[in-house]
Amino acid sequence: MRPTAVLALSVAVVLALALGLLLGTVSFGPLDALRALRDPAATGGAILWQIRLPRVLLAFLVGGGLGVSGACLQALVRNPLAEPYLLGISGGAGLGAVVGIALGWEVATAVPLAAFAGALLAMGLVYRLAAVAGHRMDPRVLLLAGVVVSAFAGALVSAILTLSPAARLRNAFLWLLGGFSSASWALVGIYALYAAAPLGLLWGASRWLDLLSLGDETAQSLGAQVARTRRLVYLTTSLLTAACVAVSGMIGFVGLVAPHALRGLIGPLHRRLLPAVFLGSGAFLVVADACARTVVRPIELPVGVVTALVGVPLFASLLRRTLT
Amino acid sequence: MTLGRGSFLSELVERAGGRNIFDDLAVPSAVISIEAVVQRDPDLVLVADAGEPGIAGRPEWRVVRAVRRRRFVHAAGSEFSRPSPRMPEAVRQLARAFGAVPR
User: Fold this and answer.
1) Under 8 Å CB-to-CB from A9, ≥6 apart: which residues?
2) What percent of chain A is predicted at pLDDT more than 70?
3) What gap in Å lies between CA A48 and CA A38, rounded to an integer?
4) Helix, strand, or coil here: A38?
5) ∠ CA A26-A31-A37 to the nearest 5 degrees?
6) Looking at the complex, does the CB of residue B58 fall below 8 Å from at least one CB of chain A?
7) Domain edges within chain B
8) Is pLDDT of B81 > 90?
9) Which of A167, A293, A298 is opposite residue B49, by nearest beta carbon?
């Protein structure tokens, strides 16, 4: 990795985290924040320790998870437009989580697993739909199938939210557009519990991802066990996405932005790309969340609104580039 | 999620002599940040369900003074949820709760 890239990335991460920590309904100057952090019992310290810090950390980790999922899926389908939200995985995970909560399951243990089941189901459905266009999986048809499955899952989520009496589900925006308004240290812990293993596995599979992105035949001839690697990557990205969705709802387009920006800067090798994408996507989502909670304070926008405002124009330009 | 100006509950609170801390929101209801609640430091928290509200045990909500001190007022009955001849009863209940706030 070039030293300038490392420097740029670390500066971006530090700036994003500082911004996320200082900005909010109650804004702090850098010195005030340091002073407040030393006194966790006072109001300012309590806001930073109990509300702001877990929120910024959760946004960073979820952003990193979604970014890594996106980068891996892009290697898998060999298309820079792949992303857990657009492929319907987030939608399926959201549906699973909402079903779990509506049934009164334990948020810490059962809900992320329900989201995982939903993500796998959606993935399978997307594949069956895309197989209509032939066995070679045209990435465009795959994305179309993903969007359709996502819309279907969204409709079911809306139906459950409308019919369910559960008080926890009232915040429908959280599930449909994502948000960190209920962030807490407990949620950070739940996320870490489920996301650590898939993140490690995907990083360990860097070499295979490099091969897969060359194309199935090339990968096969270079010694990759294509079918098995594919299955592993699907399972792990689904689990990673499910962990993200279970703690923050469906947030779109995060998996597009940082991989796109960083591939040019760092190159396509996943051993370096994945950690960089984790940091970059984390920083991106922290800044997006800071915008979401300050633009119209004290009201909060769902963070998915902000990521869509950035992600959709990028999607349009990527689409144009892949088609020409 | 909280209720802004012009919502039914906000009006009930005003008639009972209280003030909704979010009466500057021009929308009937909105998702607001916990920080905003901390900053506005309410004396009482009106909850829409009977029983101990879920926020009482959550560390991020315990930053709010009224939550820490368990100053909850339950507005669970149907007299709080829609205009009806029982509105005066709702206002009386609220006024009683407001009167009990230690200053």
Assistant:
1) A262, A276, A279, A280
2) 96
3) 10
4) coil
5) 70
6) yes
7) 2-100
8) no
9) A167
Q: What dihedral angle (degrees, nearest 10) is formed by the CA atoms of A171, A156, A101, A82? A: -90
Structure-block tokens of residue A101: 């909560």
pLDDT band at A172 (very low <50, low <70, confident <90, very high): low
- The number of distinct structural domains making up chain A is 1
Q: Flag if A297 and B33 touch (Cβ within 8 Å).
A: yes
Backbone phi and psi for residue A123, each to the nearest 5 degrees, phi listed first: -55, -45
- Looking at residue A203, its pLDDT comes to 94
Domain that holds residue A303: 3-323
Q: Does B85 contact chain A (CB < 8 Å)? A: no
- Residue A166 pLDDT > 60: no
Whether chain B has a CB inside 8 Å of the CB on A54: the answer is yes
Q: Do B1 and A179 touch (CB under 8 A)?
A: no
* Percent share of chain B, pLDDT over 90: 0
CB-CB under 8 Å, A171 with B1: yes
| pLDDT tens per residue across span A31-66 | 888 888 888 778 788 888 888 999 999 999 999 999
**What are the tokens at A163?**
């019919």
**A127 touching chain B per CB within 8 A:** no
The answer to whether the Cβ–Cβ distance between B35 and A181 falls below 8 Å is no
User: Does the pTM exceed 0.80?
Assistant: yes
The dihedral of CA A6, A28, B29, B90: what is its sign? positive
Q: What is the pLDDT of residues B51-78, one digit of tens each?
A: 777 777 777 888 888 888 888 888 777 7
Any B CB within 8 A of A107 CB:
no
**B31 contacts on A by Cβ (under 8 Å):** 171, 173, 179, 181, 299-300, 302
Chain B residues whose beta carbon lies within 8 Å of the beta carbon of residue A181:
31, 33-34
Give the torsion through C-alpha atoms of B23, B27, B30, B33, to 10 deg.
-50
CATH of domain B2-100: 3.40.50.1980
Residue with tokens 């809900």: A111
| Four-CA torsion B37, B3, A103, A116, nearest 10 degrees | -60
Q: Are A92 and A121 in contact (CB under 8 A)?
A: yes
Q: Which one of B31, B36, B63 has the shortest CB-CB distance to A25?
A: B36
CATH number reported for the structural domain that contains residue A270 in this entry? 1.10.3470.10
Q: How far apart are CA A138 and CA A146, in angstroms?
A: 12
Contact B26, B4 (CB under 8 A): yes
Residue-wise pLDDT tens digits, A74-113: 998 888 889 999 999 999 999 999 898 888 787 777 888 9
Q: How far apart are the first and last CA of chain A?
A: 30
